[in-house]
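B., you asked whether I could sanity-check this one before it goes into the benchmark set. Here's the sequence:
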Amino acid sequence: MSSVEEDVNWKAFSQKKLTEDIIRNLQHKLDWAILSRYQALSEEFIGEFRDKVDWDEICRYQKLSENFIRQGFQGLFRLNTALISQHQHLSQSFMLEFKSQLDWKKISQYQTLDEAFIINNTHLFFGYETSIKISKSERKYNGYLGK
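And here's what the prediction gave me:
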């Protein structure tokens, strides 16, 4: 390693705006948790480096498509379902498709749901002390949904 490389603060450097090519070339020196949080990474790049990225940071800070999340739920990636439920924008149809894998307490707190969805799927929210965000309205339901 050259003296220049020894003098680099790689954690701080990992926070700088970097291209995927630079990350690829310096992958053994950079901090992948920091990269996963602060860099705008393409889904293709995330998939390529699936064994290096910090999946919790990816689930929190990267904007992931439903197709990419679907691949994760099918076992291709190690997704944190609670963090996906909290931090990713999910369509109501996607939520129903993966209802057994999502964290419904987080869904009820962080996803915006329309009233019909809530009424038609109250069984998914039973047992949670929760605050549900209802779309197209400033109204919120606060309380316990139970049988």
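One thing to flag: The radius of gyration is 19 Å. Otherwise nothing jumped out at me.
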